[in-house]
């Protein structure tokens, strides 16, 4: 009787152990799958073509480049400011593509769950300029600027990828300053690596160029309220502690990446809202991706969405960067 009871307990223990192992493996596989989806995006995502009412499959950042440059514009409740920014953007891009045969472009507007008519405004431009040149990605609900840009980057087709704000605060022609830095870097890298007969494509090099308003700091300090200057200085100090030195203005919304650099950065980026820019600096350092800071023309536009509660959220996200990466909780995949 005792022997039978012992066998029964052993069988029960073995069954529980086996069930636990199966559960652990299943949870691990699910976590891996969800992290993979988070990093590379859904392959069954699509863009809507309002002209033909057809669905165009989303490309992946892992696909070869099909355009010279992609412009990613995150938009949340931007029905009023978006038209003027898009008019300036598309006017420049059309003139340049007419002058340079090798210049091709796409503008990717990411509607981050807007509650107004942002998507309707954006789709009007798709109709006017065709879906090969202008595309709208609908996120459904509001995730945050960082996530909107990340999704846009993951589904872009350019050799160069430029993120810019929907308010048109930075003069678009300044993209040539960022582009020039990348071209100079690539030219030097190609000249240094003369061991191969096959010249790598522009998109194969890794570099990030950050538009900067640091040269306007003295003017800003003179015109801002004292408490805003105090908060700004405190924020810069915390940024320095979180990501280290290197970039004076991490928060300017005008940044350009080569496709290879964007692939590494945006498949690893985790912050969804305010401080994803700081995380990008941190990731560039982790991957050894060169960073260049370039002064750009910038105008403060009305309608800022930054509130006092946003400052608190920013500080929380900066702490997350130090804790997440510092303790190895957030893994980096190359």
From TrEMBL:
Is the keyword Glycosyltransferase assigned to this protein?
Answer: yes
Ranges that cross the membrane = 12-34
What keywords are annotated for this sequence in UniProt?
Endoplasmic reticulum, Glycosyltransferase, Membrane, Signal-anchor, Transferase, Transmembrane, Transmembrane helix
List the pathway annotation. Answer: Protein modification; protein glycosylation
Stretches assigned to coiled coil:
none
Its subcellular locations are: Endoplasmic reticulum membrane
Superkingdom, taxonomy of origin: Eukaryota
| UniProt KW Ribonucleoprotein keyword | no
What reaction(s) does this enzyme catalyze? a di-trans,poly-cis-dolichyl phosphate + UDP-alpha-D-glucose = a di-trans,poly-cis-dolichyl beta-D-glucosyl phosphate + UDP
Q: Which GO terms describe its biological process?
A: protein N-linked glycosylation
Gene Ontology molecular function: any one: dolichyl-phosphate beta-glucosyltransferase activity
- Gene3D superfamilies in alphabetical order: Spore Coat Polysaccharide Biosynthesis Protein SpsA, Chain A
Q: What is its main location?
A: endoplasmic reticulum
As recorded in UniProt, its EC number(s) are 2.4.1.117
- Name of the top EC class for this enzyme: transferase
Q: How does it sit in the membrane?
A: Single-pass membrane protein
Ranges for domain Glycosyltransferase 2-like: 70-184
Q: Which GO terms describe its cellular component?
A: endoplasmic reticulum membrane
For this chain, the family text in UniProt reads: Belongs to the glycosyltransferase 2 family.
Q: Which PANTHER family does the record cross-reference, listed alphabetically?
A: DOLICHYL-PHOSPHATE BETA-GLUCOSYLTRANSFERASE, GLYCOSYL TRANSFERASE
Q: This chain belongs to which protein, by name?
A: dolichyl-phosphate beta-glucosyltransferase
Q: Which species is this UniProt entry from?
A: Rhynchospora pubera
